[in-house]
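Re: duplicated header lines in exported structure tokens

Our pipeline writes sequence and tokens for each protein into one text file. With two proteins the header for the second block appears twice in some exports. Here is an export where it did not happen, for reference. First protein block:
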Amino acid sequence: MLCIYLLQHTDRFHCCWYPEFSILCGIEYWIPVQPRRLPEYWKEGLGKFTPHGSLIRESMRPFALFHMNYKMAGIQKKLYTTKIVVVGAGELALSFLEHLIFSPSCWYLGYKSITLISQGGIPNKFEEKYETFVKMMMVSSDRYNEEYLGKLSLETWVDIAVGTVTSIDRKQKFLLVDEEYDFDFDYLFLFCGTQFTIPQSVAELVTNKECRVVVDEIKGVEIKHSNRPENLFTINSDQDAFYTLMNLKEKFDKTEFDRDTKIVIYGHCLNALACIAGLLEFGIKSSFFVLVEPATCPSENIDYAYNTPVYNSLKATLQSCQIEAYYHYSFSSYETEETVVTHEINITKVHFQSQNRVISFKALALISFEPKTINYVTRLALQKACLTFDGKLVIDSDFLTNDKNIYGAGSLTRYKKKYYCDHYNHENYSSHEIGAEIAYRFQKRIQMEESGKSYLSEKRSVTEFTHPIVVTCKLPGGWNYLHVTKPGPMAFLQTIASKKPWGKVLETGSAFDRQGPGYFRIIINQCQLVCDILCFTTNKIDVHNMICLYNKHESLLNQLLLRWKGDLISDLYIYFKEPWAYALYHDRFPLFMEEIQTFYLNMIEDEQVTFYEAVAYCFNVCKWQKISEKDKELVEDLFNYIPELKTAIEKKVKEFLDYNENQLTTYMTTSKLEGYLKLYKHSRLYDTENMARGRLPLVPTQPDYIVPTPGNRKELEDRMKERPMSQIIFEVPSDMDKGSNNTLSPLTSVDSIVPKEITYVPGDASKDIPYLNIDIDKLCYYDEKSNSQ
């Protein structure tokens, strides 16, 4: 069979001197290969057990892979000409496009007309000297990083347009971008979400009125886009971060700017701190920064804002970096000034207020992360299109608006009130999982409508998403932050812990020690499942590995609770880097667990029930509370009573490790066991035939050797006559001929044999048999000729 693979490198630089890559003609008929995520290996700890270099190539440029063979070439691939337009380029939109293009049916179905519209396009790669700083200023889930997007090569399948949707014509099925470009659509997907917007300014600052508070509450007037000051920035994408970085660089390159001015950063979220970390790394002095946090906190940041160890550590870090920080202040107003030559409007002074105080700063720039709302232009476009809008775009359980050809999802939307499910709103759930679900349902709809069936007539309930919410970023002081938590509305840890029954919180390290391993918190719920992971350290965090730990039972984590109770775990970072854990980090492990679960659905012989039903019956007797020890023993006896179930699971585990042996190098597999047995039969360590060639004997082939003593002289002489000399451990006497290349002189007596308890093992033996139970440090042989050990 002939198989052809096409490697397409994508240099996705946002610079005019880097030409765009060319696309092969007829590429739509090839089969795109979805990239896989490898476990992040601890090379220092694993050593020689780290996978081979051909599997891990850190310096290799990311590339997209396409496949074609005789079988696929003989199948007619159907390409839909349906015009699909996606608005937004966040994680939800990228997830939708990934699962639409790389679906299981991609080898016989495809789409020719997909358009993505976004203010900044898809995440770009910038010049190397700015790339690190731009990425540090962003908070993300690290799902669609630069390397992964390079392997997807979405530009091959998607037309990208940069701009903002200003009008939607539902009747004619087209939309306007920036009031200039129009795009036709058959299906429209609105994934634009919410963004950080310009803070509202008050009409007048009252300072001379005597009252109990310093400033009266004055309603704000929303700033029009055309009147936006040049030094007012909001960062919603990497393009915004790059634009902010270049503007600040231009201001600092000027020698006439006021040294007393400040870069004011307003917001109570991780995005504000990540922005400070990126600008500090860029080289801006910490004395230029002022952080102002409002009293209110967004729901998605509730754990960061009130997690005492992490929050207090960040406060101490800001103080040590000499960054001014003010807490519980809300934005009041700012003063502007227009330049005579360029007619640019710039902010000169910013005012904030608390319950009893007003503070003001001379502003070089204002970077706002408050409030986070729907874009004003987008909101007007939705309302003028007569799409149902109740503070947010209203959708049904199929993610459809009141127009059956327009989908909506993400923080832009909310469900219809008839579902009574405000807690299921999408801002509380994983965007990646939502995008995958919409892609699956859309493909199902296309195929059903093509076959003449009605997809919209089916009634469905609101989907309950289960994937975790992941937040990762770089914070001031060199701290790395990762939070993996369960989906749904956030709540205080103290509130959750007050509910009974409750699980356990495991913590190691300190959030204040930069030289130490770092702070690690893992929460195990009452079902002994991992429901929350928080990492705060100056060392590199294995983000993908930590995400894989979510929703795993503690027994899968090498009996975590038992070891914790025995004080055997001092550092959770090192614990989860140990060799036993890498099967959990494999991308096929969830599918493997699903296959294991199917075994429990088989009927038990002579019982006419499944194992699931037997366990459910025990919980039903206990009224779904903690199962009693007596019932627990009955379930364990039932499992041991079914040898076929246990054997099938063991066989499946063995097949999983054998099939993924190239990545799971720390486990004993069938091929390694066969190699060990082959080594036992043919290696110089055990092969007695080497003795006939005059080679130096290494270790005995039988453990029942006899150490020469005056009392067993005759027995030893008889043993020497019965079997070869290599089966006795001995030391070469000093009077042996050294010039015969390690050959042995004939021995007729045991007088010159000196017993020796240790033997030599060649250095390559441990590579072939990594699980050989031998203490290598004790197995050595001193060769006087080579003076080496």
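Second protein block, exported in the same file:
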Amino acid sequence: MQNKRRKSEEKDIPVVMIESSSEEEEAEKDDNYVGDSDEDSCDHSMEKMKKRKRKVGSDKTIGGNGKMESKMCHQCQRNDKGRVVCCSKCKAKRYCVPCMTRWYPGMPEEAFLKACPVCRHNCNCIACLRLDGLAKHLMNVEMKFSDEEKLEYSKHILRALLPALEQFNTEQMIEKEIECHIKGLPDSEVNIRKAKYEKDERIYCNYCSASIVDLHRSCSSCSYELCLTCCKELRNGNLQADASEVKVQYIDYGPGYLHGKHCSITPANNGTCTETTEFKLRDQIKVAVTSKWKPKENGAIPCPPKDMGGCSKGTLNLRCIFSENWISQLLLKAKEIAQKCKLKEMHNDSELHCSCPKYKGVNDTSGGKLRKAAARENSDDNYVFCPAVGDAQLANLKHFQYHLFKGEPIIVTNVLDSALGLSWEPMVMWRACRQSKKTTDVLNCLNWCELEMNIHQFFKGYMEGRFDSYGWPQLLKLNDWPPSGLFDERLPRHGAEFSCCLPFKEYTHPQYGYLNLALRLPDNCLKPDLGPKAYIAYGFPTELGRGDSVTKLHYVVSDTVNVLMHTQAMVPTVEQLSAIENLKQNHKAQDQREFVTGANRMPRRIKDSVPNVNGKSDLEGLNFSQDKQNCDSLKVENSNKAENMKYRQQGLKVENSNKGENKKNSQRVVKADCGTNKIGEKYQYREDSSLFGQNLSERFEEEDGGGALWDVFRRQDVPKLEEYLTKHFREFRHIYGSPLPQVVHPIHDKTFYLSTEHKRRLKEEYGIEPWTFVQKLGEAVFIPAGCPHQIRNLKSCINVAVDFVSPENVNECIRLTEEFRKLPRNHDAREDKLEVKKIILHAVSQALDHLEKTTLTTEGHIAAGSSSSSDKQKYK
């Protein structure tokens, strides 16, 4: 809804003229103002709004037909704001001109006359926003599946999950054999007792924090529980799970340090920091664990010592959660039905195919259904599948499944065309939100710290932009709002609107997606929080190098779809850009000082308290004169032109007397950037003084519609990506703007954002690059599980995302869950929140139930038809 509102001829619209009021303008000046002054604040009850009386004139006037006509605006419930437009469809609702202009900027007056927002089901007044009936109705739109569709989807689920079920059953059968050996009894005489637990509780392994789904070992004397994977690793003397704890120290040197000033010896805030440093050596802990916690010769496992969470007295006995042989029986039934249905293996399925011309050697973009996102040599995956929402809704599900299975991002355009047009303006969302809190915690992207802020001030900055006292853009983020998985409860209309516009609802619908395996969990079971979740963040058109509005490199444990619902451009003035450029020079000088010449000073504060996994400081023993590969990437005294290119986006200023050469190399080709000149499929980024020319605003407007820049890495490139980040981690900053003191896991830490320069060096050193593309307003971006990705906002954006578990990528979910086990005990990503193995079991069970009923029904019809034919033959 970015189009300007068109004015209509007043003579064609029935109006009532009333003297205008200036109360609305006065209210806007109040910093604590929340929402429209013509409506109650969100912290007031609806009853109070209904009781409020207007004392400005009569509510009705006499029309041309002599009858009394109401002049009350439905939106603001006022009658003193001038001309109103009456709806010719319902003949009951009317809207004043100020409300039409302010709250419906993309809707002309003729549209109000033809059918008002109430008739169109997109009214954004407080009363309508909080109506549950319409929201519940919208959530059920177009979500009825035919019997044929259910049959095909159930076959697809079984075919995809059968290998995982077989592997899961094999692990359990091995443990049962060990139990038989421990007890010296045959399998028929070994009874496994059921564990005592509530159906709505999750059971986690005490050692690795993985979710326990069925068979596990539990102490006979205490509550210690161990998963089968840990049992296997302990017997092999190779526990992979990390029992250490790590807390990284980031020192706050104050706001001046963030903008390039020398840091003082005494940190800000009386020398305190958010986290105390405690790093136990993982290698030493693993040695200690294996030395004092060993299985018995027959395979029995004693309870670990008290310092490891156990009691050291009891023995870990085998227990089950489901009935003892339920999974084995489930597997037998699955194989039987798969044979009847003649199901093929997923990776050999000829039905999963791609009709994109890029796989046939055709150099076109398939009528706009492909978008170039990479320039890899000798590769057939440089283009991403990019259908319009109409194509997604019709017959392209198998095409979508192919790209999802291949682990490729997918972009669906124009998804808002299928919505009802409810406004996603930030103040509309705030007025709709059913909560009374006026402040919220927002994230400052410069120091990566949270601060409490008035919600109206945050949204005002979203629309207009904010700068700090140094003249640097203040880019703030509001993640997961409303919080605690309450999006549909706090914003029911917006939640329903979001669900309606989602493409490929078979996978994405939060309540009724048939192919979303997470929805197969029973009602009495704790379910993972998959969204929807809103992410509201400021943006800036060009890459700043420090304090950019970014979502750092990370995984999502499942598949996810992210829809850009609203954007607001922030075009800086020439003066603001000049101040930014001056600060950039300070940042580059600081990076040069700390990363190179100051290496013997700044990192030592980290060294004193943060050792690495070998018990030494991260920088202890580091010799910059000997480590040529690292030194060359940071050295500035003897850098040549090629080396100078490495620093431009990272922020390392090259002091070179030959300014003509630097200027000559001040242009380069990059993948995408909003503040760029588009030339074919390439973008030319300018760093010279022409950036501050008079045509700057026009150049920003050329990229209108682009809201967020995405970088998505291929699964097969992850090892090289991790190697690059581990090698160069000292060149990145995080909390308080401090350089990273260490890296635990390059992706799960969520501490890296690769700038344009780092992406160039990544390709130069390791030969890999991500898919890079700009997400536009109304586009849905699908990211398959297992693909690391990062985002930078080019404008202020409101994104809404929902996660789902697809049959195609369930193995990636399992792989990521196994990675979580190897993280330190107190790592944010350690907990297994998805419980994918539990999802697999319930999804297979339900698919088999449906296929079994369908098969029996089909066989019954065939038998009945044969019997009828036989009877007819008898009486001939």
